[in-house]
Specification:
The complex is a heterohexamer, with one copy of chain A, one copy of chain B, two copies of chain C and two copies of chain D. Chain A is mainly alpha-helical. Chain A is built from two helices and no strands. Chain A is 70% helix and 0% strand. Chain B is mostly helical. The chains are: A mainly alpha, B mainly alpha, C mainly alpha, D alpha/beta. At the C-E interface, helix 2, helix 3 and helix 8 of C face helix 2, helix 3 and helix 8 of E. The structure holds protoporphyrin IX containing FE (HEM), adenosine-5'-triphosphate (2 copies) and magnesium ion (MG) (2 copies).
């Protein structure tokens, strides 16, 4: 460990704000890169399942749109 | 060889393969990223001229390097999709664009944050930075074009053409930006380019670059999986998957 | 037509135009990206020296605003004329003055407002002194509204002709110039430490005047254009 | 269906209309009065001036012709162009229509779309519709409008046979409720209703 | 298709596109007037100090050339798609490569060539040193041809979409940038007393490459666009 | 009229065509062979997929459908859109046509324009023409073309009754000279010639 204390690590001789904000922004972007496709996949599968159920199981309970 | 090529063309096979790869690659990647960052931020000595702001290099440089490489991955996938009409190459190409854009964005933002303490300004029109900005434009152009097409099969073809045109152009863009910069020769700011880097800084840096490559692979596979499902939504295997997913 | 009905109608028109401009929220990024690219052209063309760029930043951003307005105002009524929507609009019982205003407002929201809001970022990239940024954003927000109104007049007058594009630029560019002068003047004043207020006040006065007059000119122009 | 219209049931009256385009006289001395319950078809070959006359009657052409037009009721004009935006869905096209007749409820719009056989296409972007379906989006306005005076320029273009039948039923219904219809069509109108013909060449109504 | 028939066909296409662009000879003046007005914007926006203007004249003229190319390339194929001409072109027995080239050539004749020929006048207006004018004209003539070819690719890829305008700018602006750099570089070199030859040679090489490759990309893009 | 076409007289053959758009199956398993002297009408309601099928057969749609199409002769395709430039005159439109079939002499073009009743309008800018005249400019290509295979998407739209009659005569002439015609139309085809019907719903040719 290069730094002596947590405070020193946070401060980094006045450069702390820059370094840490850079790392946090990167963490945010990386998290989005991993999380967004997983969520899309999950949501798509759920939507497809609903679609299959609708087309196979006749009328859904809430949708009585007869014209 | 040819059978492998065909296997890569088979969506369910790729879907399952990517699932099993991701199962171990994704955790390892995330661990490596965290570990490398901790190594770089907390356990290395500061650069003697730039002090602690140098620690941004452990994300800045890997992101920049992988973002550049990503464009070539995208272009190769585009070429394969146009020449052999391979559906999976389409999908890979499409998946590269947002990832590359995200990494370019990281490189630009971290670079810009680095620039403030180092040069005293958020932004300079340096050759390397300018060409990175243009790379971001290129990536976002592909994303925008893909989003604009409603028919995704056609969207992929259009993007393949665009990324191939881009491939021809990237070296030209790089060269031209270099010339532009040297032509004007602003005296005020210079990269320390060529300064030898201390091994104690180099190892975590190389480690982080590897980790970013793994991250790119993971994100690529994750994005491809969604795309495969959406393209193949009428096939039996996706429908079975949906039913299973809902039950489980 | 009751005033309430007219307001509802204009809001509906506004919504329609905005949806036509941005079918999906993702598309909001396109104009911003476009501005960023055009801003990037200037260092590439004029050279990267930070001090000259900073000195030119007000002018550059104002020229970008003006050109992007010019580029897009030709399209304000064109597709509506081509598919017959415009003649339906003229037959609507609501006063054309307000409908024209709704069209222009939608255009401004998609060009001027976005550019005004994003301008601080571009100003930083060009190295403009942070103190001048409020004046820049304010002058862009006011000034682009005037530009959109003037551009609407040009669009209304030329939309009926089979050849738009170039002609409209010739008609409206001279009217754009005062806005450019006062707009970049405001930023220049702020840069030099003088108050930007008087310039902004002039832009505000121009805006009031054009809100009052431009929609009438647009309405008259549209009637002529549909008649051809 | 009682708004507008004078006591004598005249919805539209025009007198002494004549028009010259490109050095050719298209028609001259046309006078007509359209009353409630009247169905008038303007007849003439391609290029005879039917569209030009309709646009004058609708008030879209205001210069370059001689004569006088007086509207006495709200009108619905459907021209050659369909005023349907490709980027918008049929539902949005009707809900946000620039003709601004009224605020229609979602149910009204859906019913109108169903009436022109676009049930199931409400939310497809209109550019993905077929040529006939595209025109049908516009024709759905016939089921929404409360204007007594209808000016229709070739409403049957690109519509299939069943669709033409349904449209004719709608016209009949409108006429029976006291509306007036002035239309052009190259296809024969097979409506069980007295049809007046306006011959552009002679300028007479028969 | 015999080569002779293909040549005749392409000449016919070229003639058609030129007539569509300039129905009456008077219209030749419009693009020039447009350039003049946009060039006039820069002194207004950047401040009229003669020496700075002269120093930046190469960049300014190149940026104007680039923007006017951007402005007009969206329209290269759009009206042809909308009225069905494009699908007829794809069905024509002649190779699409040459037809695409004819379209681009017509576009260049109406924008780049005109601007290149008129550029000495604008250069004088901005106070550019007369010695740099030949380099300016030559670089504009070569460079705008590259721009037109690249713009054609963007136009072909986006013409089938219901939304043009902004998207095409996003696609092609990055590819325009090298041309801008080498083009203004050539003039800058001439201004500084260095030979402009190398820059012009690069522009020429870019032109050869894009003549060989761009029509193929355009043809592929058009096939996709007509298919939507 | 002898260029192209195989010895067995097949101008166009397609097999196993199926298409799905927007989650709907429009047609499936359509196979057809068009021979010299055959007149085929594609039947179906609005949105049935007639235009989509014609575009596949013409080679304009290349992705997103299953099946195989083979051309054995030069073709003439007239779509919903007329490919007529408003800024050009009818004469210029034909002389500089982008379909690039051949160089037509001025006399040939004038004759074709006269045949579609545009005599006297050769030099009027096309945007000043009426809707029907505009389409007639395009239809004049039927009098110029030497392609044996004609694919016509609703050729009678906006044409007046006399015009439809003249067109039918031209079709008959083409068929008798050994050409083949595949067309869609919502108006009944009243040609004294054996008409085959392709029903999209069942995929059969009768
Ligand atoms: C975007 C493309 C970029 C790439 C490929 C890139 C790459 C690099 C590389 C490889 C280094 C290490 C240089 C060395 O050790 O000598 C570096 C350093 C640096 N970068 Fe970037 N960078 C990029 C963008 C930016 C941006 C946008 C900024 C800020 C405006 C920036 C600011 C810096 C700073 C301040 C350094 C350290 C400066 C120095 O060593 O003198 N970079 N960059
Ligand atoms: N701007 C103009 N200049 C010259 N002639 C014109 C102009 N506008 C229209 N015309 C002529 O006016 C005539 C009438 O056109 P109009 O559209 O009214 O015909 P129409 O009866 O509706 O024909 P169609 O059945 O084909 O729709 C046409 O012959 C056309 O050439
Ligand atoms: N991009 C698309 N997305 C979704 N659906 C589409 C798309 N393109 C076409 N369709 C659908 O395909 C169907 C067939 O269209 P097509 O134009 O072939 O019909 P058509 O038989 O020619 O009808 P018409 O008689 O009205 O001309 C329509 O129902 C349309 O909604
Ligand atoms: Mg008409
Ligand atoms: Mg059709």
């Amino acid at each position: 460990m290069y730094f002596n204390s947590l405070a020193a690590a946070l401060q980094m001789d006045g450069h702390g704000a820059f370094v840490w904000s850079a790392y946090f922004i990167t963490i945010g972007v990386v998290a989005m890169m991993v999380y967004a496709p997983r969520r899309r996949e999950q949501r798509f599968l759920r939507q497809l399942e609903g679609q299959i159920r609708r087309s196979e199981g006749g009328n859904p309970p809430g949708a009585s749109k007869e014209v | 060889m040819w059978t492998l090529f065909h296997k890569f063309g088979s969506p369910p096979w790729l879907y399952r393969l990517s699932g099993s790869i991701l199962r171990w690659l994704l955790p390892i990647t995330l661990l490596a990223l965290v570990g490398g960052a901790v190594w770089g931020v907390l356990f290395t000595a500061p650069d003697f001229r730039q002090g602690n702001s140098y620690r941004i290099i452990y994300i800045h440089v890997p992101a920049a390097v992988v973002a550049l490489a990503g464009y070539y991955v995208m272009a190769i996938a585009g070429a394969v999709s146009l020449i052999w009409r391979m559906k999976m190459a389409d999908i890979a190409m499409r998946a590269c664009a947002p990832i590359g854009a995200a990494l370019t964005f990281v490189a630009l933002v971290t670079g810009s944050i680095w620039g403030k303490p180092t040069w005293g300004t958020w932004w300079v029109w340096d050759a390397r930075i300018t060409s990175m900005l243009i790379l971001l434009f290129l990536y976002l152009g592909v994303v925008a074009l893909y989003e604009a097409y409603e028919n995704k099969a056609l969207a992929a073809k259009a993007c393949a053409i665009l990324s191939l045109v881009g491939t021809v152009n990237i070296p030209i863009i790089y060269k031209s930006v270099d010339w532009w910069y040297s032509l004007h020769q602003p005296a005020s700011i210079k990269f320390t380019g060529g300064s030898t880097i201390d091994p104690s800084m180099l190892y975590p840096l190389l480690f982080m670059i590897t980790a970013f490559y793994c991250l790119f692979t993971c994100a690529l596979l994750l994005n491809m999986r969604v795309e495969i499902l959406q393209r193949e939504q009428r096939t039996a295997w996706v429908r079975a998957l949906a039913n299973k997913g809902a039950a489980g | 037509m009751t005033p309430a009905a007219t307001v509802t109608f204009c809001l509906r028109l506004l919504r329609r135009q905005l949806v036509l401009g941005l079918r999906r929220p993702v598309e909001l990024g396109n104009p911003l990206l476009f501005f960023a690219m055009v801003v990037a052209l200037f260092p590439l063309g004029l050279g990267p020296a930070p001090d000259t760029l900073a000195a030119f930043a007000p002018g550059i951003l104002w020229i970008v605003a003006l050109l992007s307005n010019l580029l897009t105002s030709d399209a304000v009524f064109r597709s509506d004329l081509e598919d017959g929507s415009l003649e339906q609009l003229l037959l609507a019982p609501q006063p054309l003055y307000f409908s024209a205003l709704a069209y222009v407002l939608a255009h401004w929201l998609l060009t001027g407002l976005l550019l005004g809001l994003a301008s601080p970022l571009f100003a930083l990239m060009l190295g403009l002194a942070p103190g001048a940024i409020p004046a820049l954003a304010a002058s862009l927000l006011l000034g682009t509204a005037v530009l959109s109104l003037i551009g609407g007049i040009g669009a209304a007058l030329t939309v009926g002709l089979k050849r738009g594009g170039m002609l409209i630029s010739l008609l409206i560019l001279p009217f754009y110039m005062p806005v450019l002068i006062f707009g970049s003047g405001a930023v220049q004043a702020a840069l030099n430490g003088n108050p930007a207020g008087p310039f902004l006040a002039i832009l505000g006065a121009l805006l009031c005047m054009s809100i009052a007059l431009a929609p009438m000119a647009i309405a008259a122009g549209l009637r002529i254009s549909v008649d051809t | 269906m009682t708004d507008g219209g004078a006591a004598d049931g005249v919805l539209l009256s025009a007198s002494g209309l004549s028009l010259e385009r490109g050095g050719r006289e298209l028609f001259s001395g046309i006078s007509l009065q359209l009353r409630r319950g009247q169905l008038v078809q303007i007849e003439g070959a391609n290029g005879a001036g039917k569209t030009s006359l309709l646009r004058i009657l609708a008030g879209l052409s205001r210069y370059g012709f001689a004569g006088h037009v007086e509207h006495r009721a709200a009108q619905l004009f459907l021209g050659h162009q369909s005023a349907v935006k490709g980027l918008l869905t049929p539902r949005e096209n009707l809900a946000w229509h620039v003709a601004g007749e009224a605020d229609f409820s979602a149910a009204e719009i859906d019913a109108a779309l169903a009436a022109v056989n676009l049930y199931g296409y409400e939310d497809v972007p209109s550019h993905a519709l077929s040529a006939g379906q595209h025109r049908r989006v516009n024709l759905a306005r016939l089921y929404l409008s409360r204007a007594p005076l209808w000016l229709l320029d070739e409403p049957f273009t690109a519509i299939d046979r069943a669709g033409v039948g349904a449209l004719e039923v709608r016209l009949l219904q409108h006429l029976e409720q006291g509306g007036g219809v002035l239309l052009t069509s190259h296809q024969p109108v097979t409506l069980a209703y007295p049809l007046l013909r306006l011959d552009l060449a002679t300028g007479t109504l028969q």
